[in-house]
């Protein structure tokens, strides 16, 4: 498996990969991925295996708080899950975040996605306390706007002293 930055020529294959994420992930437009490949490629790694795109994540350093990095999407092709691809992609993002001086990675998940909750917890992310729960998942009501409640997860990055 090779982890590398997103490149423009990968966009059609990336869009096809992201379609496997329904209903939790909606593929972005070609223009959006072009932007990611040109302005955020180091924090938008992809995983290839035998020349095929098998996983991808998109993450962005905050311009308002440069100590934070938000992970927008993480997707691994169903035929390649449970093989460490998500872990490898997020290790790459984590290293980029640390190199940029970030202190916090965070992401959100749909409240009804227990598989995501398990994955983020297994990778060391903490489900932040919210104002509601679904099962054992804490939810922040309207986190992404009216009617867009989310489970929010964070991973605090240790700083070398």
UniProtKB/TrEMBL annotation:
Organism ancestry: Bacteria, Bacillati, Actinomycetota, Actinomycetes, Mycobacteriales
CDD domains referenced in this protein's UniProt entry, alphabetically: NAT_SF
GO molecular function: acyltransferase activity, transferring groups other than amino-acyl groups
Range of residues in the leader sequence: none
Stored InterPro entries: AcTrfase_GNAT_prd, Acyl_CoA_acyltransferase, Bact_Acetyltransf, GNAT_dom
GO terms for cellular component: ribosome
Source superkingdom: Bacteria
PROSITE patterns linked to this entry: GNAT
Keywords, in A-Z order: Acyltransferase, Ribonucleoprotein, Ribosomal protein, Transferase
Protein name (database record): Ribosomal protein S18 acetylase RimI-like enzyme
Residues of the N-acetyltransferase domain: 1-158
């Amino acid at each position: 498996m090779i982890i590398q930055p997103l490149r423009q020529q990968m966009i059609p294959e990336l869009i096809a990969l992201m379609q496997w994420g329904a209903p939790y992930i909606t593929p972005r437009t070609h223009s959006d991925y072009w932007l990611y490949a040109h302005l955020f490629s180091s924090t938008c790694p992809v995983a290839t295996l035998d020349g095929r795109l098998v996983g991808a994540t998109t993450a962005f350093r905050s311009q308002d708080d440069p100590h934070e990095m938000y992970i927008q999407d993480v997707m691994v092709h169903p035929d390649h899950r449970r093989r460490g691809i998500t872990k490898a992609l997020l290790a790459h993002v984590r290293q980029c975040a640390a190199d940029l001086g970030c202190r916090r990675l965070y992401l959100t998940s749909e409240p009804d996605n227990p598989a995501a909750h398990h994955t983020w917890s297994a990778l060391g992310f903490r489900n932040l306390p919210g104002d509601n729960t679904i099962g054992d998942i804490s939810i922040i009501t309207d986190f992404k706007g009216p009617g867009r409640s989310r489970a929010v997860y964070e991973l605090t990055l240790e700083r070398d002293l």
